[in-house]
Amino acid sequence: MENRAIVWFRNDLRIHDNEALTEAINKKVQIIPVYVFDERIFKGKTSYGFDKIQSFRTQFIIESVEDLRKNLRIRGADLLVRMGKPEEIIFELAKTLKTQWVYCNRERTYEEVMVQDKLEHKLWTIGQEIRYTRGKMLYYTSDLPFPITQTPESFTAFKKEVEKIIPVRKPVPVPETVPYMEMVDPGIIPDLDYFGKKNIVKNHIENNNFCGGESAGLAQLNYYLNEKQLVKNYFETRNDLFGWEFSSKLSPWLAAGCLSPKKVFEELKKFEINNGENKSTYWLYFELLWRDFFRLMGKKHGNNIFKSGGIKNRKPSPFHKPENGLDWVHANTGEEIIDACILQLKETGYSSNRARQLMASYLVNDLKGDWRMGAEFFESYLIDYDPCSNYGNWNYLAGIGNDSREERCFNPKIQAQKYDPDGKFVSYWTVYKKTSIFATLN
Description:
alpha/beta
């Protein structure tokens, strides 16, 4: 074996605060950075027949991979891009190139774990090993005052034990150079056509503003915190439905790993030092804490977050049936605010936190649909899909997750009056539905 290592980029498409890359560099080995488009994801279907990933997130990831390659080239390296099964492609690269290690960020949900476990076993057969690092969470699990199996089931209890007691570690430095082995064809980055995805029409504010990649993510973070200082009013604006500036819009970059949560926290603290802290700046940290909580729930409860009874293992109601949600999927419920939320998601890949709660509540409580169909629909369309956050939230809203209440029911008309009082959001999407190609396709 040679003094070489593969760095397998997964949902950590960045140079900053990337422990897998940093640890490999510190080993003083030649590095082969690799990203594999797993065709089971990019060409696959969910159990309810949705594409596992629609055009919006596919394009976002393509752009993120392009940006990662650019940033690696600036540092004297390159990014090998392949399409197929990561456990097979990376194993063949490791065997052919006679590497010693594969560095990667450890994932915690079923499909991702199966891939890394298969690769790990294959590597053992040729005397190589995976070295796992972390990078998805704000806090290190080893720093928490409890083992994962004893993570509090209540977010409030979790927050109480963590937020003012456990320090957030500093992000690892950005490498100036990356020692690279120039013996392998880097490969081409595929486009939407390769995966059979429809091209994106950029005719909505969300389409125009979301661009994948670390560079765009850092720019959006700077825009939100420093250029416009929008974070000062985040608590008051966070439940809005319409527009770009009412929330940070950082979630797609966090989900793809283009932004590190520790980097967001570090920049937020700098902002508070220079401009003062308030409830709004705290609330941005609060949302990062929710992300950690749901990831810990995914680790603690494993596949139960995907099952009909959720983490509470509650017996499913016979009245909740998938067919009850068909009008919901097609934005034909007749409830204007709900249909507008669904249209926005299907046509842009984006949905605000408030809109997601409204859609989920209506499907589960009003239509008596299967929450898992809703979760898979979100998985398919959301540009910021993250398995733990998505399924954790659906568990929560369906009354089978981290909440003492059995259901969280919202009255859509009251919600519309409260969060869309001038009707701009509903009007925009109602007009779009009537006048666009969506009407004929539907």
